[in-house]
Amino acid sequence: MTWLGYARAQFLLSQQVYWKRIGIALTGTLVPLVLGGFMPFQLRHGPAVDGAPAGMYALTGFLAFALFFTVYTLVNAVTSRRDALVYKRLRAASLPDSAIFAGEGAAASLPGLIVAVLLIVFGLVALDAGAPANPLLLVVGLVLGVAMFALLAVGISGILPSADTSMWIVTPVMVLFMFCSGIYAPLSSLPGPLADAAVYLPMAPVVSIVRTAYLGADFAGHNAIMGLSGAGAPLGFAGQVQACIGPLCVTVAWAVIGLSLARKFFRWDPKRSGR
Fold first, then answer.
1. Domain limits of the chain?
2. DSSP letters for 31-58
3. How far is CA 127 from CA 54, 78, 123, 217, in A?
4. Cα–Cα dist 10/255, whole Å
5. Over the range 253-269, which residues count as b (16 or more CB within 10 Å of their CB) and which as e?
6. Structural contact between residues 74 and 148, judged by C-beta atoms closer than 8 angstroms
7. Inter-residue contact 115 to 36 (CB < 8 Å)
């Protein structure tokens, strides 16, 4: 069997396990879908945010937030299967390590991408939004974002002590990112030092890329992020890409950090107390 065949087999197996664990599946799909639909709908008649309709400003933020549930799903899957020695048995079957995690990452990423597509449809139907201004940049932002979150999830799982405690650690981080990554309010609304730091959190650059690509305006450049004049200014294709270079670089940097953490800390054996 080829590497792609191994990765595909792992992907299909992980998908089956994911949908059988109904609690994890519902949390990873319904929570971002409900939040991503309800809050923009409630804000649809609110005042414009940086020149964008409030509902669409929030919707584009939740498109990115839906991807972050990849971390929730994958951390739970990786720590659980590590603790149950599933990965050691898979390695004994000659599965390449990279194929195992490629399949796991793709399986965990799929629900978030599906939710993002459903939210785009919701925007078209319920919010009278037009089509994305820059579909190519939007796809790049979504795919790069979900890949970065998958790598971070594997890296973080190597540090977490067990599957039992992983969700208690990951969930507060998700809540923090929801309020500090510009999902439904500009980063400039945060206190000064926090606004400066939030730019470099993993979620914020993905939000900026997705929002800029969808709305066709500058929500990724320095002026837009810091609330200076020029925020939300309409841009052409080249201008949108140029504005997103910084956030794209930050996203790639976090992906590299996730890969480095995985290489350094991930172990195939369960963590033992006193070890």
1. 3-265
2. HHHHHHHHHHHHTTTSPPBTTB-HHHHH
3. 10, 37, 5, 18
4. 22
5. ebbeebeebbeeebeee
6. no
7. yes
Q: Which two tokens stand for residue 65?
A: 């937030």
Percentages of the chain per state (helix, strand, coil), in multiples of 5:
75, 0, 25
| Tens of each residue's pLDDT in the chain, 275 residues | 788 888 998 899 888 888 888 877 888 889 899 999 999 999 988 898 888 899 999 999 999 999 988 888 888 888 888 888 888 888 777 778 888 889 999 999 999 999 999 999 999 999 888 889 999 999 999 999 999 999 999 988 888 877 777 778 888 887 887 788 888 888 888 887 888 888 888 999 999 999 999 999 988 865 555 555 456 678 889 989 998 999 999 999 999 999 999 989 888 888 664 44
DSSP at 189 = G
Structure tokens at 3: 């590497």
| β-bridge partners, 49 | 52
Joined tokens for residue 230: 């020029």
- The CA distance from 223 to 26, in Å, is 38
Give the residue among 83, 102, 107, 99 at the shortest CA–CA distance from 268: 83
Contact 175, 195 (CB under 8 A): no
In angstroms, the CA 224 to CA 78 distance is: 37
Q: How far apart are CA 4 and CA 10, in angstroms?
A: 10
Q: Rounded to 5 degrees, what are φ and ψ at 49?
A: -115, 115
